[in-house]
């Protein structure tokens, strides 16, 4: 709420037209195999367990909770293909939005160093105070670049240190999918080369801070991150999207996704794309995983295209940092303010869409595991949901639900969130089943 009011007030004070800074470079020829792509990261892998993580939005609250889960996975020893590993080593993909994208992106860049650096660099740093100071500085009110560019500058300097997606092309690193929403078309957009090909652009040179800013750019509070839809690579509609079109006749939601992505081929009318908070189209980070598998024709066809070896277990861990809505408008006959009404509507839509997303993913997990299974080789699905509702300690659950969606938390709150991420994972019955099934093979 405070961020919303801050954005309104500074927008009114500024009162000028702003323009997005363009930093995505054009490409003359597509090179998905060597780019920051699904194809490069997931092709030819061999493991017993295919693990995917989804980090939700929620400011530093989401970043700290997901960081706690990463630490827990690091500290979970297993055996895979007869070798001693950590469960973290089995993570192939992390899909994230908004606050969760800070953790995912930092881990994508730094790997193991994340566990020494991320807390002082981001979790225990007053990033929100820096943003507020920047936005309220009178000298910035007439900055024609807009509020988001000021945020990008701050994230670049204090968190990501100028890193680009090329810096995440590390050996044995998971694919990090930072997700945003196309403001004009409502398309879920993942920062992977397959999607950047639609814009005739090279993701390797694109700043990570800019992608994270797009994923967390709440409309009205912040301006969109603007990306140019270049027209000089003559890519046209890619084969994978054409094939998805042919398969999607009876899948209305998938058709909507395909239509939105194909709209980038209209270079005349879509010269630029405006990206905002990924939470608008999926606050859990799960739908991007769903899109990849369904656009690829299902789990089996996607695995065949990527030349993946059969796995024994297919695991998705959803880390949801959303809190219980605190709505007091029913305590009085006074008409709610514009802000109260907007927040109430946003909460209702978010909760209902989250429920729908979970339902879609549960059904998808069963279907995908069935597609990957054969009579001789059964693939077992594990859909692990972590959220504050499962915190057993009533007092701790109350404290967690009081933590605001901001980029400035107290150390005690960060400590609680990190511990909660670890405890939720270890106490989850589906996670226990996974570890039991892995251990039974020893």
Notes on the protein architecture:
This protein is an alpha/beta fold and 442 residues long. Helix content is 45%, strand content 13%. The protein is built from 17 helices and ten strands. The strands form two sheets. Strands 1, 4, 5, 6, 7, 8, 9 and 10 form an eight-stranded mixed β-sheet that branches. β5 (175-182) and β6 (188-190) form a beta hairpin. α3 crosses α16 and α7 crosses α9. Mean pLDDT is 89; it is low at 1-14.
Span between termini:
52 Å
Give the rounded overall mean pLDDT. 89
Quaternary state of the chains: single chain
Low-confidence runs of at least 5 consecutive residues: 1-14
Strand content: 5-15%
Number of E-type strands: 10
Could you give a short account of the major beta sheet? 8 strands, mixed
**What is the molecular shape?**
globular
Structural class: alpha/beta
Query: Rounded to an integer, what's the Rg over CA atoms?
Result: 21 Å
Tally of helical runs: 17
Percent of residues in helices comes to 40-55%
Order of helices and strands: HHEHEEEHHHHEEHHEHHEHHEHEHHH
Question: Which features characterize this protein?
Answer:
single chain; 442 residues; alpha/beta; 8-stranded mixed sheet; two-stranded antiparallel sheet; disordered N terminus
């Amino acid at each position: 709420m405070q961020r919303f009011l801050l954005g309104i007030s500074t927008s009114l004070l500024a009162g000028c037209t702003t323009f997005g800074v363009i930093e995505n470079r054009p490409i003359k020829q597509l090179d998905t195999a060597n780019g920051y792509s699904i194809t490069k990261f997931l092709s030819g892998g061999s493991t017993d367990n295919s693990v995917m993580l989804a980090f939700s939005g929620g400011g530093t609250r989401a970043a700290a909770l997901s960081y706690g889960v990463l630490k827990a996975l690091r500290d979970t020893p297993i055996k895979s293909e007869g070798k001693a590993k950590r469960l973290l080593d089995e993570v192939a993909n992390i899909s994230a939005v908004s606050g969760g994208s800070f953790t995912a992106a930092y881990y994508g860049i730094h790997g193991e160093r994340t566990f020494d650096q991320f807390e002082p660099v981001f979790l225990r740093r007053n990033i929100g105070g820096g943003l507020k100071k920047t936005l309220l500085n009178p000298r910035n009110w007439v900055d024609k670049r807009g509020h988001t560019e000021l945020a990008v500058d701050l994230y670049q300097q204090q968190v990501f240190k100028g890193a680009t997606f090329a810096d995440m092309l590390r050996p044995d690193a998971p694919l990090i999918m930072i997700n945003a929403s196309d403001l004009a078309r409502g398309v879920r957009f993942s920062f992977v080369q397959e999607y950047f090909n639609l814009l005739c652009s090279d993701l390797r040179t694109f700043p990570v801070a800019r992608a994270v800013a797009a994923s967390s750019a709440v409309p009205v509070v912040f301006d969109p991150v603007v990306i140019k839809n270049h027209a000089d690579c003559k890519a046209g509609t890619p084969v994978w999207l054409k094939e998805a079109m042919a398969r999607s006749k009876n899948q209305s939601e998938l058709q909507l996704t395909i239509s939105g992505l194909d709209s980038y081929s209209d270079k005349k009318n879509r010269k630029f794309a405006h990206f905002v908070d990924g939470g608008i189209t999926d606050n859990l980070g799960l739908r991007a995983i769903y899109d990849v598998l369904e656009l690829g024709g299902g789990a089996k066809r996607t695995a065949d295209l990527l030349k993946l070896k059969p796995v024994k277990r297919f695991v998705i861990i959803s880390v949801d940092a959303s809190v219980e809505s605190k709505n007091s408008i029913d305590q009085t006959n006074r008409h709610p303010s514009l802000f109260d009404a907007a927040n109430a509507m946003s909460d209702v839509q978010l909760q209902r869409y989250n429920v729908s997303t979970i339902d879609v993913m549960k059904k998808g997990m069963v279907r995908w595991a069935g597609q990957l299974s054969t009579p001789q080789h059964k693939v077992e699905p594990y859909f692990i949901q972590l959220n504050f509702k499962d915190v057993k300690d009533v007092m701790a659950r109350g404290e967690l639900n009081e933590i605001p969606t901001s980029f400035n938390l107290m150390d005690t709150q960060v400590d609680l969130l990190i511990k909660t991420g670890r405890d939720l994972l270890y106490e989850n019955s589906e996670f226990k089943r996974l570890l039991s099934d892995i251990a039974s093979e020893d």
